[in-house]
Design goal:
Length: about 140
């Protein structure tokens, strides 16, 4: 995988220190600590947190895509939710319940890095793609 030259922003912190912040292509948010996602005690599938981190490290994505394992991303009825932001494009996925789907997400991220831009998700992820916002152009369900 060919890596592009890292771009940086100069930011002045509140304490006056100048920081060079690395600009990333994207961020992967994994709901793994919320009120439903990963909560096997509530009947939801576990979130493979360790696998998310291992794949992120193994594929050396640190300077391209940041990984955040966090609390609730909503909507809870679609647990386990993942939000991938890449080049300003959001891709929301639900029911990321097994290791094969986690691997597919990381394969998708690598495909976008290679393509040097946002591309549509692969067929394995398309049934899990959703959009819960009114400001996008995804057609509304009846």
């Amino acid at each position: 995988m060919e890596l592009t030259v890292a771009k940086r922003s100069v930011v002045w912190r509140a304490d006056g220190e100048q920081i060079n912040v690395l600009k990333k292509r994207g961020q992967l948010f994994v709901c793994s600590l919320g009120c439903c996602c990963g909560r096997t005690d509530k009947g939801f599938a576990p979130v493979p947190q360790d696998l998310h981190h291992q794949e992120w490290e193994r594929r050396k994505l640190r300077n391209q895509v940041h990984l955040t394992q966090s609390g609730c991303l909503g909507p809870c009825s679609l647990a386990n939710v993942v939000l991938l932001m890449f080049d300003g494009h959001p891709a929301w996925f639900h029911s990321i319940n097994d290791e094969n789907l986690v691997i597919a997400i990381y394969d998708y991220i690598e495909a976008m890095v290679r393509a040097d831009g946002f591309i549509e998700p692969p067929p394995v992820l398309l049934p899990l793609l959703f959009d819960g916002f009114t400001w996008t152009t995804t057609p509304e369900a009846g």
